Amino acid sequence: MTDASKKGPSRRGFLSGMAAGGAAMAAGAVRAQTQAPDPLITEVQPWASEFGDPVDAVPYGMPIRFESHVVRRNVEWLTESAESSINFTPIHALEGTITPQGCAFERHHSGAIELSKQDYRLMIDGLVETPLVFTYEDLTRFPRKSAVAFLECAANGGMEWGGAQLEGCQFTQGMIHNMEYVGVPLRTLLAEAGVKPEGSWIYAEGADASSNGRSMPLDKAMDDVLVAFFANGEALRKEHGYPVRLVVPGWEGNMWVKWLRRIGVYDQAVDSREETSKYTDLMPDGRARKWTWVMDAKSVITSPSPQAPIRHGAGPLVITGLAWSGNGRIAEVDVSLDGGVNWQKARIEGEAKPKALTRFYLDIDWDGSEMLLQSRAIDETGYVQPTKDALRAIRGLNNVYHNNGIQTWWVRADGEVENVEVA
Amino acid sequence: MTDASKKGPSRRGFLSGMAAGGAAMAAGAVRAQTQAPDPLITEVQPWASEFGDPVDAVPYGMPIRFESHVVRRNVEWLTESAESSINFTPIHALEGTITPQGCAFERHHSGAIELSKQDYRLMIDGLVETPLVFTYEDLTRFPRKSAVAFLECAANGGMEWGGAQLEGCQFTQGMIHNMEYVGVPLRTLLAEAGVKPEGSWIYAEGADASSNGRSMPLDKAMDDVLVAFFANGEALRKEHGYPVRLVVPGWEGNMWVKWLRRIGVYDQAVDSREETSKYTDLMPDGRARKWTWVMDAKSVITSPSPQAPIRHGAGPLVITGLAWSGNGRIAEVDVSLDGGVNWQKARIEGEAKPKALTRFYLDIDWDGSEMLLQSRAIDETGYVQPTKDALRAIRGLNNVYHNNGIQTWWVRADGEVENVEVA
Prior knowledge:
Sulfite Oxidase, Chain A, domain 2, homodimer, mainly beta, five-stranded antiparallel sheet, 24 strands, 6 helices, globular, five-stranded mixed sheet
């Protein structure tokens, strides 16, 4: 489905002598034509003289056919089975901060199951005063909270440990989405069951065959975790865990258990498959980092990027991207046009919400010469997004997860863009 | 499609002697069952032992089949033609604040046209230094802004002037949606063309056959109006004006011209069909209010409501709804259980954004007796949403537009809900 097999060249040493345009945009630069004999202006077009679709043509609408390329895509060789695979968000073609459910990253461990509200049950058991089973309707009777939050897979950018290997930020950083959730705080349900004093961990599992069980310290479970049933205003889609999933703001996506079936309360972690064999970070000395739940600050330029080249030539150019941090708000995003030598402060658009995607822009007057575009996120804790090499120096090359290194796009003079690395 | 022809009874005088439960929810009220021999818990279900869908089953996902009732609906007898009609948002079944594009209110004057980016042109002419024609790509080169904003049709609630006539808040208040938009400020494009000193109005028209032309004072055009191309993260849907529409925060929906074709700058209003014959408010003395652009503060309880009855009986009940104001932020929402005699302050969830839908909740312990539910919005200017009778006393009954009166739902002891009025 994509040019995913391409092994991108390492472009170390490319940097010297670049002269990319970083000047502020010239005021009044004309980006439009004065009126000309353009038949689209001078002649009556069919759409201006005939009826369009009636209102009842589409009870539930889909994107217009011209946008049929803006879809999730998988990379077949990444996994053995599509039931246990990854479908990447087309972040190169999206804007703003909300990710529509229909094209939002999905990953399953045994496929997306179909589970009705009638068949739904949630059990809370283990170290609780009163083990409880909730129906879907039971859940709707508790006070609700909402949160806009990003979900990022721990493996997002994982291929980049080995260098620039996948073309397009859909594939390099597209294991992410950002939605407005509504649900019941998990602490409310835990309080209903009554956590015993010795309870210090929970274990969440889903109703699918994989169960995708994950342990979580009770502190987090009592903090900002939601048992959610709505996303972006409507019911969760099937592939996002209909009818109920966990929302675990700032923490890696596999903790956000879909088709949530059970919360067990324990006095220690379960050490399940998904937190021992998987989702641990193998270090150079052969030991593994464990419980690396929080997604550190990260950013990526979504346009221009390999799937979103510059078609309009030199002159005014909008550079835009996304930044996020599992530790809170994004405080600043810097953009470099020359592979990290010089940095300019990007404009953060709107409110930077905690643990949510944040949109940034840098508006430049591009001189048409090649650029090495990078972005660097800084969050409210002062953490600065590192280079890939800085990460590798500590974590080595055995690891799959938690690559939040700075991404580089090589913009050529013809506007085409490639995934590269600079030293 | 709905029980729309039903003329709701006037329930004036219904109020006396009501004893609806308004007590704060009892702490620790158990809303779940302890474990029981429930086969959904004790037996392995098919979805827990078989693969679900692979990730590439749906490149662009749709709601699960169990939610097929959560769709836009029209009321056929309201208009003569479905090309010039209304499709209402299912607000009774949505939550949070974002409205998905797929089920968001649509209204066209001559149908939803299909217009490609290649065929798209925007002309700015009239009292400008340099008349300009922009291609879609031209527009993408200007600095972008985003805004979350509600769009409400001036006719939303219009049938309520004559009493409780339509069952369900989808039909009484569903001519509304709320999205995150990204686009170019209109002032940026006007500055590019150079507005002459005598320019004091703009006139916006669409590329569809109706053109839906509307005049707007230059002050508003230079304030917060966006020439938008993205909504909720992705391209505008066809029925929402793909590829470009106006976003006019706080002002009535017909000003938000879709398939935007031309902005003319003039020294007076055009007085087009849509601002003389239509979208003026006929007063009791036969004169019409004109230029009633701003949507005043309003609210509605979305659940329980006629399409969202109470199925679970007495006990803990989540009452929720939406509030909004074209004049800024919602400051407070009050809820009455007894038809406006007593009011309780509702909980506003999350940030109340200016000119955007705001979600409110009141969590009660329902005693199972009947209620007359109302909500009342107060915005940051101090404006208080009026009763329908207070509006009628001033504006009479000739009018179609700008009914922001308080809505009443009669909740019966069996949990069914009807649209009624109280005196």
